[in-house]
Design a protein that fits this description.
Strand content: 25-35%
Radius of gyration: 40 Å
Helix content: 10-25%
Structural class: alpha+beta
Strand order of the largest sheet: 1-2-3-7-6-8-9-10
Number of strands: 17
Length: 316
């Protein structure tokens, strides 16, 4: 009996004992695997544009030429047209001057030209170009204003004035010289669409654009330099005439009370104290300048005219 009870109790205990529970499965939200977003590699900057001198050197290297430093340069050269050239040069300081040499089939010793680089003084680029362009470019019959006796090109960027001077014997058939001249024009910063002034044999010059096409300044473009009348009597005037006389002839009697001469026809006059007179052109080798009078545009003797600050005047 006792054994039966014990057996029954064991059976009951086993039956009442819960089976071990499996560990609860914890649902973990799925985490989407994403690749690390690395910043895109920066695009490397384009290589810097080669400088003008580097491009000149590349042209010379291709033909077996060379560039060597020198002291002489275009702004120092003694020439009949220094005043016109100095209108550009006096507003700059020298950065460097070089002799460029290269072979040429027509010359056993090759060809040499002179290259110079000047830096415009701070804030004076516009002033330099205004004054220079007032003296240069086609206007009163043909090419007026000179910068050299032979072949010279002066071109400008925002900061620099480049001069390339070649002797009268270096013709346009020297292709590497023409390539460098074109490079200087193409590297220029246009001023009224003009990038350079080119001197020619005989001293005349003309203005050109990047395509080497001749450009003529309009009267509106020339109204940027002013003069005032001086040393004229209170009861007299300064005559403005239809044209200047032949180059080289200088007259010192432009006033109203002088006897009749073979002077060109009078077309207007300026008062003895006239101010802010637009100076439109100052050609070389003459005392005569083109001005704008109340009666129209004509020529007056610069002996009786003095520069006047642009800031004191306004365009008419």
């Amino acid at each position: 009996m006792i054994f039966a009870l014990l057996a029954w109790g064991l059976t009951l205990g086993i039956a009442c004992t819960e089976p071990p529970k499996a560990p609860l499965a914890v649902e973990v939200p799925a985490v989407q695997a994403t690749a690390l977003q690395r910043p895109a590699a920066p695009t490397p900057p384009p290589p810097p544009e080669p400088s003008v001198l580097e491009q000149v050197d590349a042209i010379l290297a291709r033909i077996g030429g060379k560039r060597t430093p020198q002291e002489q340069h275009w702004c120092l050269a003694r020439a009949p047209f220094e005043d016109q050239r100095n209108a550009l040069c006096e507003h700059t300081e020298l950065e460097g001057a070089w002799t460029l040499w290269g072979p040429h089939p027509g010359s056993p010793n090759g060809v040499k030209v002179e290259l110079s680089q000047h830096r415009f003084l701070d804030g004076e680029r516009a002033l330099a170009l205004d004054r220079a362009l007032a003296q240069l470019g086609a206007g009163a019959g043909g090419h007026d204003g000179g910068i050299s006796w032979c072949h010279t090109q002066a071109s400008w960027t925002e900061t620099a004035l480049w001069g390339l001077d070649r002797s009268c014997g270096v013709s346009h058939t020297v292709l590497w010289v023409q390539e460098i001249l074109a490079l200087l024009r193409e590297s220029a910063s246009p001023y009224d669409e003009i990038v350079a002034v080119k001197g020619t044999p005989g001293g005349w010059a003309h203005l050109v654009d990047t395509q080497d096409q001749e450009r003529t300044l309009t009267i509106e473009q020339r109204r940027r330099i002013f003069v005032q009348v001086e040393e004229v009597a209170h009861d007299d005037v300064l005559w403005v005439r239809s044209q200047r006389h032949e180059t080289g002839q200088r007259y010192t009697e432009p006033l109203a009370n002088t006897p009749p001469t073979s002077m060109p026809q009078k077309i207007g006059s300026l008062a003895h104290n006239a101010r802010c007179v637009p100076l439109l052109m100052r050609p070389p080798d003459t005392d005569w300048v083109m001005v704008e009078s109340p009666q129209g545009i004509g020529w007056a003797n610069s002996r009786y005219l003095a520069p006047q600050a642009t800031s004191a005047c306004s365009a008419p």
